[in-house]
Amino acid sequence: MKEATVIGGSLGLAILTAGAVGLLLGSTATVFGGTPIGIAVYLVIGVGLPQYYLSRETGDPTQLGLATLSVAGGVLAMLGSLALGSATAETGVGHVLLFVVVFGSVLGAIVREFRAGYRTES
To answer: Which of 12, 38, 45, 69 has the highest CB neighbour number within 10 Å of its CB?
Structure first.
């Protein structure tokens, strides 16, 4: 369950970070990933950080690629928002993206741990 614990802990850290950023900027939509800065926080801390850590532990190039893509996505979200206006402007696009990416990685970790445990017991 180490992989699921790392990903779940990073998701909790991402929620706390987004809450702190939202409190500092006065934007509650940041917590829900409704702003570009919220999307960047969830992609970098909620997905990129744990996938990078796990890729270092397991040597899996797929996890390293996912970490790289999520951090690049967070950086692009911030650069695009700064170029087009404000990083705290509410957008409706991020909710579905974040749900799929963040919770998809959590579910993937649970499935991988289950399969690894099943193979060990058989």
So the answer is: 38
User: Do 30 and 22 touch, CB atoms closer than 8 A?
Assistant: yes
Q: What are the distances in angstroms from CA 56 to CA 62, 63, 67, 73?
A: 11, 9, 11, 21
Domain, as residue range, for 27: 2-121
Give the C-alpha separation, 58 to 28, whole Å. 37
**Token pair for residue 11?**
């998701």
Say if pTM beats, i.e. exceeds, 0.85: no
pLDDT in tens, 25-65: 887 777 777 788 888 888 899 888 988 998 888 887 878 88
Cα distances (angstroms) measured from residue 82 to each of 6, 11, 28, 30: 31, 25, 19, 15
For residues 19-43, one letter each, b for 16 or more C-beta atoms within 10 angstroms of the residue's C-beta and e for the rest, the string is: eebbeebebebbbbbbbbbbbbbbb
